[in-house]
């Protein structure tokens, strides 16, 4: 199983600030830092901004390690 690392951001759009693995092994990009992410009863990550649910904005790939998916979120490191 693949591990989520900074490599996921290599070709990511500029708006991406974080990424996380959900309970199925899919990775999703988010326009907010990981501190603004949470997960729901469906075992999916989400972010709630105002009245609009901006969950799971973009899925670049799957087949990632799910053994600790609840702690998988990482922030993008900008150099």
Structural class: mainly beta
- Give the mean pLDDT: 81
Number of strands: 8
Biggest sheet record: 4 strands, antiparallel
Strand order of the largest sheet: 7-2-1-8
Query: In total, how many domains does the architecture comprise?
Result: 1
Number of helices: 0
What is the helical fraction, as a range of percent? under 10%
End-to-end C-alpha gap = 28 Å
Shape by Cα distribution: globular
Oligomer: single chain
Give a short synopsis of this structure.
This protein is mostly beta strands and 79 residues long. Helices cover 0% and strands 28% of the residues.
Which structural traits does this protein have?
single chain, 79 residues, mainly beta, four-stranded antiparallel sheet, two-stranded antiparallel ribbon
Topology diagram in text:
Blueprint (H helix, E strand, L loop, with lengths): L17 E4 L5 E4 L7 E2 L5 E2 L1 E2 L2 E2 L4 E4 L12 E2 L4
Antiparallel strand pairs: 1-2, 1-8, 2-7, 3-4, 5-6
């Amino acid at each position: 199983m693949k591990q989520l690392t900074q490599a996921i951001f290599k070709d990511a759009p500029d708006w991406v600030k974080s990424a996380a693995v959900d309970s199925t092994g899919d990775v999703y990009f988010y326009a907010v830092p990981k501190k603004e992410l949470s997960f729901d009863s469906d075992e999916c990550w989400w972010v709630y901004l105002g009245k609009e649910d901006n969950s799971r904005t973009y899925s670049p790939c799957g087949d990632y390690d799910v053994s600790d998916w609840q702690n998988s979120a990482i922030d993008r490191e900008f150099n």
